[in-house]
Amino acid sequence: MEALTILALSWQHLLVVAVILLIFFGGRKIPEMMRGLGSGIKEFKDAVKEEEKKTEEPKSDSSINK
Q1: pTM, full prediction
Q2: Predicted confidence (pLDDT) per residue in 4-26, tens digit
Q3: What residue spans define the domains of the chain?
């Protein structure tokens, strides 16, 4: 239970992290980083969906052959 309390972030923590990121990377670099993060997440989700399709296809083929 204590581990969850330690990892919990309040709005103050998030504000401090945002300010630190702004200082280190500047206002122009952050949107580029977020776009890259978003496209990476999208690629990951697409890959997961593709793998799920591949694993579902043999199951449906085996039921047809029976």
Answers
A1: 0.53
A2: 566 777 889 889 988 998 898 88
A3: 2-65
Q: Tell me how far apart the alpha carbons of residues 59 and 53 are, in angstroms, rounded to a whole number.
A: 10
Which residue in 15, 21, 13 sits closest to 5, CA to CA? 13
**DSSP of 12-53:** HHHHHHHHHHHHHHHHHHHHHHHHHHHHHHHHHHHHHHHHHH
23 conformational bin, left if phi > 0, alpha if psi -120 to 50, beta if neither: alpha
| Tokens linked to 63 | 């039921």
Q: Is 7 exposed, middle or buried (0-12, 13-18, 19+ CB in 10 A)?
A: exposed
pLDDT (tens digit, 9 = 90+) per residue, 29-63?
888 988 999 999 999 999 999 998 888 876 555 55
